[in-house]
Amino acid sequence: MSKTLHRPLPEIITRPDVTAGEWSVSDCAPTRGLPHTVISNKRLVAPQGSDPLSQAVRAHEMVHIKVSPQDYTPWVQRGHATYESMIACEEARVNYLATKAGFDMKALADGSEKEAGERLVANEDWEGAVRTAIATLGSNAHRQFITGVRRHNKVWADVLADIGRRAMRELKKHDKRRGKHSLASTAEGVADFTPYGFIYTEMLANWVDRLCGDNPNDRNNDDDNSDDGDTDDSESKDSDTKKEPSDTREPTRDEIKKVVEKYKQMDIADTPIPEWFELVVETCPMPVILNGSMGRKRVASNVGKSPRRLHRYLTDPQRRVFDHTIRGKGGIVLIDCSGSTQISKDQVREVLVNSPSATVVAYTVLSFTRDDNGVLPANAWVLAQNGRMVDEIPFDRGSANAVDLPAVRWAVANRKRREPIIWVTDGGVTGYRDECHDALNIECLEFVKRHGIILASDVTNAIDKLTKLRTGVRPTSDYGMGFDRFVSQVFG
């Protein structure tokens, strides 16, 4: 007698960023690792049996089709969480949403979970243990996995169990949101960051990555080392070579509770990490021309290889008969005009006096609304370039930030010959809808560090730094109040 197959129907699921059409659906065993979904190719591999496990797996994959991203690359490139942690946290979100939809996700366990827990402890793979504990949330697989971990490491088991409880509370908390901001939202986000509900997965994954970098074994070793301050060097070297624990006894309940409490101090962000808004750069008319050396220029010199100016031998007291090539003083001055920092025409002129070939760009988001043709208004303006400048500033007063990092990225992409970039900012960066978040500050500082960008507190300070650069002195950055809390985290 042939087995009755229950083919899932991904064709009935609709979402804004996925076109309608027939899917390729294949059967597989209800074994971990075999079922999968490729939304971009409309391909679904899932068990088609009638047993509870097969039904749970099909429901899980169908929810993936409804709420998960087609492509994780834009989210990974945001730099707030790793791909591995986002995959694990998305499994938890999908399990939660499938349970909410009425499916029995407790059946989602294939019997391999206890062995997986034992294996990860044996391999001392704390990162794998954290991500597996998160990925199995909402099913019996989570409980069985913790049981496997507990057989060999009670500290890990209790910490992982607490991590799972906290993650589930976060999902329930954000499930109270409605509309576009709901946990299951499939609304389009800004740029390539869709669907919007995945932003909660990213937020949770950011916390999971921090957990992965804090192994309980390392905490225990640190505690042991702090108690042995009188140990001589020979004993330290010997213990490092052997790498054997000095205490093999079972930890007490109070000791385990102490470790768990330390992990509870590692907070999850209260809000999802906002998206950066889309940068729209407009090059303004520049009718005003300033005199200054632009680009390359040959000048007379008293040192060199080829005496091209012999006529100066008798007329020039310094006998500058050689040619020397100089470059016009360049650079990009990027100005945040969202709040306390503004820019005037006179300040633009002063920048060019100090650096004739500098590019001056101001940015602020005046509106988040597209026009009837779906076009966003400009939120960054090139005010000076190649020795020319605007006659009038194109806006009266700034408004929101929202494009801080995209504007800095634009400056890096458009600079020439590694010319300096000075970013005028108070450190109060924000994302879409002018929302603040600690992760945005850290992301900006890491980018600043990576590309050697100089920070200035205001335009006058930026001009002083340009003057130092002209004399060959590289100025230091001035970190605004918005960055002060995070400087040590990024710069050490």
Strand content: 5-15%
Task: Give start-end ranges of low-pLDDT stretches.
Answer: 224-246, 292-296
Instruction: Determine Rg (CA atoms, Å).
Output: 30 Å
Tell how many strands the DSSP assignment holds: 13
C-alpha end-to-end distance: 68 Å
Structural class designation = alpha/beta
Major sheet: 8 strands, mixed
The 3D shape can be described as: elongated
Number of domain units:
3
Number of helices: 18
Overall pLDDT level: 86
* Percent in helix: 40-55%
What does this structure look like?
There is one protein chain. About 40% of the residues lie in helices and about 10% in strands. The chain is of the alpha/beta class and about 500 residues long. It has three domains: about 10-240 and about 250-265, no CATH class; about 280-295 and about 330-490, no CATH class; about 300-325, no CATH class. Strands 4, 5, 8, 9, 10, 11, 12 and 13 form an eight-stranded mixed sheet that branches. It has a three-stranded mixed sheet with strand order 1-3-2, covered by helices on one side. Helix 5 packs antiparallel against helix 6 (about 140-150). Residues about 225-245 and about 290-295 have low confidence and may be disordered.
